[in-house]
Here is the input.
Amino acid sequence: MTQKNRSHFFLLLKVIATILLLALLFNQCNKLTSNPVLYDKIIGFYSRPNSLPIGVLIFILVLVNYSLESLKWCAILKPLEEFSFWKALKSVLVGVLFSIFTPARIGELGGRVIELKKENRLVGTAAVLVGSVAQNIGILFLGLFGLIWFVYANNMAERLIFLSMLIITIFLFFIAILCYFNINRFIPFAKKLPWPKRIRPYLGKLSLLTHYSSTTLRNILFLSIIRIMVWTFQYVLIMFLLTGDSVHFIQIAVILMIFLIQTGIPLPSITGLLARSGVAVFMWSQVNIDEWNALAATFVIFFYNLIIPSLVGLFVLIFNRNNLNENT
Here is the structure.
């Protein structure tokens, strides 16, 4: 790609990303203003006596969340390319920006690898999947644990059914862990797939994914689980402000189940917010939390964990022209 075409490509990318993000913000603001009850709930969230310190704490947790993800991205890329923490953080934020417009967060792949060297982008895409698998294993484990605790605490199943659920959970987690720590065994199979001719010369680099040690994979999984705990703490703080009541362990189990179910919704964040809200409303109704608090919590989480990082990601995309251009 020539320098002129490269500049035109990134200019178009920036314009499209800006328009889509502004459209998303307008759409969400329009939804809020057209629903007075939900709007009042969210305004009330920021007008309570403890809203300022708790709001600041939630924002700090956003920084912690994406710092953990950046450390994870550095560890994932180590066999492939040296990445500083700040460069990893910028890649993660651009990935968040692209992910909110695409089904199943596919756009995150492009956002993450855009700063990699051209010859490393294919294997970089596979490396993103390593992190996603680790994150999903954490969600699977904690989500199923939350489900088991919820069923047990509410006496919703006989002992035999409960034990069956426990055994199935342990089995699924064992299979997931076995695949994760033996990811190198899938590389030969991936190389045999009918890839386009222009991609085949880069397939040899997939062998770099076999260089992950058990310690590295364990650290990546550990960081993924810590991120889920950060999300959970954010949710607890938000529900505390909205309801004014302390959050009990059974409600933490509901939060973990919400994460588990929402992970299986393969919709873009723009259109998937409605589906995610529906999941939250149904799950919170099981512990007598009204639908408006559930909806408000979903919007607040969406604002903190996706809108703010996406805005920063757009800023990075617009003002980080040199690094992006030289790697294309």
